[in-house]
């Protein structure tokens, strides 16, 4: 089985391919404009984007949206993680947290997929905290400053194999993979 993921982020595509491989699901990039509505919740953002893509590109088209919610900053940057990464960057985020003891943070990933003209949404979270300085060369985006619970290394230090077992994206896409597998049995 194959799904088409509408994304401009090659790191995402690589991670999703690795996560879905054990389910026998192949992933191809769909070169389509991903329309992003403004909403605090990544689930709503992904669902709306999928609804717009379904009518145009049909079944097995998926979109995913990920947000980073930092507790001490009232959930900032949330679904605006991409904009914040491009503007103030990791250094800017670390500056906002300078001297702040509560470094709790949460990644939330939502994947929405078109099946039979309907949209199904699966979500996954990874809880952890923000490091004091960037560490590691793996991954992308905020990976050098995010330490998942139960670990002492950042996602960037842990590397793709570990990240793809425990990440927000691993949880969301494993739920999708399990659902697709079950659906195909009947
Ligand atoms: P598409 O919308 O084209 O899929 P994007 O990179 O814009 O790609 P998102 O809006 O979902 O994707 O992600 C927002 C930002 O959050 C993204 O630019 C990264 O900087 C960051 N991000 C997303 N997933 C991440 C992950 O697993 N680890 C670290 N940072 C991540
Ligand atoms: Na985006």
TrEMBL record:
Cellular component terms per the entry's GO annotation: cytoplasm
Cofactor: Mg(2+)
Keywords: Hydrolase, Magnesium, Metal-binding, Nucleotide metabolism, Nucleotide-binding
Matching SUPFAM superfamilies: ITPase-like
Cofactor note: Binds 1 Mg(2+) ion per subunit.
GO MF entries: dITP diphosphatase activity; ITP diphosphatase activity; metal ion binding; nucleotide binding; ribonucleoside triphosphate phosphatase activity; XTP diphosphatase activity
The protein's enzyme class: hydrolase
Active site: 65 (proton acceptor)
Positions that bind substrate: 7-12, 66, 140-143, 163, 168-169
EC number(s) from the headed UniProt entry: 3.6.1.66
Catalysis: reaction(s): dITP + H2O = dIMP + diphosphate + H(+); XTP + H2O = XMP + diphosphate + H(+); ITP + H2O = IMP + diphosphate + H(+)
Residues annotated to bind Mg(2+): 36, 65
InterPro entries: dITP/XTP_pyrophosphatase (IPR020922), ITPase-like_fam (IPR029001), RdgB/HAM1 (IPR002637)
Listed Pfam families: Ham1p_like
Family (UniProt): Belongs to the HAM1 NTPase family.
Free-text function comment from the UniProt entry: Pyrophosphatase that catalyzes the hydrolysis of nucleoside triphosphates to their monophosphate derivatives, with a high preference for the non-canonical purine nucleotides XTP (xanthosine triphosphate), dITP (deoxyinosine triphosphate) and ITP. Seems to function as a house-cleaning enzyme that removes non-canonical purine nucleotides from the nucleotide pool, thus preventing their incorporation into DNA/RNA and avoiding chromosomal lesions.
Entries under PANTHER family matching the protein: INOSINE TRIPHOSPHATE PYROPHOSPHATASE, INOSINE TRIPHOSPHATE PYROPHOSPHATASE/HAM1 PROTEIN
Subunit structure: Homodimer.
Stated name of the protein: dITP/XTP pyrophosphatase
């Amino acid at each position: 089985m194959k799904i088409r993921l509408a994304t401009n982020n090659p790191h995402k595509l690589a991670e999703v391919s690795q996560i879905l491989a054990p389910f026998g699901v192949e992933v191809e990039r769909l070169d389509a404009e991903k329309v992003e509505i403004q909403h605090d919740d990544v689930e709503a953002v992904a669902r709306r984007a999928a609804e717009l893509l379904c009518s145009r590109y049909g079944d097995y088209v998926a979109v995913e949206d990920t947000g980073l919610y930092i507790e001490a900053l009232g959930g900032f940057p949330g679904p605006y993680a991409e904009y914040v990464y491009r503007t103030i960057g990791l250094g800017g985020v670390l500056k906002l947290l300078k001297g702040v003891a509560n470094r709790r943070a949460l990644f939330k990933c939502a994947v929405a997929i078109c099946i039979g003209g309907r949209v199904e949404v699966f979500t996954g979270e990874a809880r952890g905290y923000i490091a004091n300085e960037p560490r590691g060369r793996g991954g992308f985006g905020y990976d050098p400053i995010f330490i998942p619970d139960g670990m002492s290394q950042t996602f960037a230090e842990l590397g793709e194999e570990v990240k793809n077992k425990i990440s927000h994206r691993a949880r969301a896409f494993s739920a999708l993979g399990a659902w697709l597998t079950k659906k195909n049995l009947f």
